[in-house]
Design goal:
- There is one protein chain.
- The two termini are 30 Å apart.
- By secondary structure, the protein is mostly helical.
- It has helices at 2-29, 37-44, 51-86, 98-113, 125-150, 158-181, 185-195, 204-223, 225-230, 235-240, 245-267, 273-285, 289-313, 322-342; strands at 151-152, 155-156.
- It has a two-stranded antiparallel sheet.
- 45% of the residues are buried.
- Helix 3 (51-86) packs across helix 13 (289-313) and helix 5 runs antiparallel to helix 6.
- It has 14 helices and two strands, in the order H-H-H-H-H-E-E-H-H-H-H-H-H-H-H-H.
- The chain crosses the membrane at residues 7-28, 62-82, 94-113, 125-149, 161-181, 201-222, 252-279, 291-311, 320-339.
- It comes from Lysinibacillus parviboronicapiens.
- Pfam families: FecCD.
Length: 343
């Protein structure tokens, strides 16, 4: 049984990586400026380099694909952690308001430091590297508020958790909107596009800003993923195994908030990836979290790269924010899970 699960897991990972490569190929060759596979290969391998192709690939398309994949990985892993901690299949960083808390903190940062994400370049690199830290503070505040209100007799009340999350989400969303309306016209436009969930202005500084968070916290939550299996048991049973339940939950929660904050700081608020990816992963590789975690990360990456490609091409030359594309897919899926959980 174990060998069979391992084989299914390896096959699933391989297929998901093929999907990501295929989606990246479509993304990098299609757009307002179409390129052939030969052009792309020559440019990447530095054979007869062409300044025009260099600009399109290395400055516009490649950082965008990398950011989409990294954000998908971060949100997919954070979704697994939140669903595991809360034992609630409907838990998601967006629905629980953690996205909104991190987003509000980043908007506050943009407001006081007058950072325009659309025109951000190398001169803004210090500000961009600081953004995940601000996002972490906002996300942690949102998580603290949500979990303090959702506690009932020392235990998480799932109904309260979702309702509190929705309320916190609305509150932080209103704060972000209020602050963005106080900005000048150019900064407001940047903030509004960013809040919708957009990665069209991705660059390598954004990659550098989020990569350390993703590597360190991603490695940590994967190492601790076995605890999520235990968290599905009754609390008395977990305590009898010598696990400091609340302490471990807080550590994992803070790590997932860090992952979400790093993602939100470079892409804005993109919901539903953390909801969909873990569910799809469990259907593909089973319920053991050491298998679910990497599968969910790759599914998140695949979903976001495909969604960004759709947003870039369907209404070309205009673009649809990737957060809106994901919501169009995610809202029906959320309603399906809601109906399924009641059945």
């Amino acid at each position: 049984m174990h060998k069979n699960t391992s084989r299914v897991f390896v096959l699933t990972i391989f297929i998901l990586m093929l999907f990501i490569v295929g989606a990246s190929y479509l993304h990098i060759t299609n757009g307002v400026f179409d390129m052939s596979v030969i052009d792309v290969v020559k440019t990447l391998l530095r054979i007869e380099p062409n300044p025009k192709f260099d600009l399109v690939i290395f400055e516009f398309r490649l950082p965008r694909i990398v950011i989409a994949a990294l954000v998908g990985i971060g949100l997919g892993m954070a979704g697994v952690v939140l669903q595991g901690i809360t034992r609630n299949g409907l838990a998601d960083p967006g629905i629980l308001g953690i996205n909104a808390g991190a987003g509000a903190a980043v908007v506050i940062f943009m407001f006081f430091f007058q950072l325009n994400l659309v025109t951000a370049d190398m001169s803004s690199w210090v500000s961009i590297l600081m953004m995940p830290m601000f996002g972490f503070v906002g996300g942690a505040m949102a998580a603290a508020l949500i979990f303090s209100f959702a506690l009932k007799n020392g235990h998480l009340d799932m109904q309260r958790l979702i309702l509190t999350g929705i309320a916190i989400n609305s509150g932080f969303g209103a704060l972000s909107l209020f602050l963005s309306l106080k900005m000048n016209a150019q900064d407001y436009e940047s903030a509004a596009v960013w809040m919708a969930g957009s990665i069209y202005n991705a660059n390598w500084i954004f990659v550098a800003a989020m990569l350390p968070w993703l590597i360190i916290l991603g490695f940590y939550v994967y190492r601790k993923s076995y605890l999520l299996d235990y968290f599905q048991l009754e609390e008395d049973s977990i305590t009898s195994l010598g696990i400091a339940v609340e302490k471990e939950k807080i550590k994992l929660l803070l790590a997932s908030v860090g992952l979400v904050s790093a993602c939100v700081s470079v892409s804005g608020s993109i919901g539903f990836i953390g909801l969909m990816a873990p569910h799809i992963a469990k259907q593909l590789v089973g319920i053991q979290h050491r298998y679910v975690m990497p599968a969910s990360a790759l599914i998140g990456a695949c979903l976001l790269v495909i969604a960004d490609f759709i947003g870039k091409t369907v209404f070309a030359p205009s673009e649809l924010a990737v957060g809106i594309v994901v919501s169009i897919i995610g809202i029906p899926y959320f309603l399906y899970l809601l109906v399924k959980s009641k059945a």
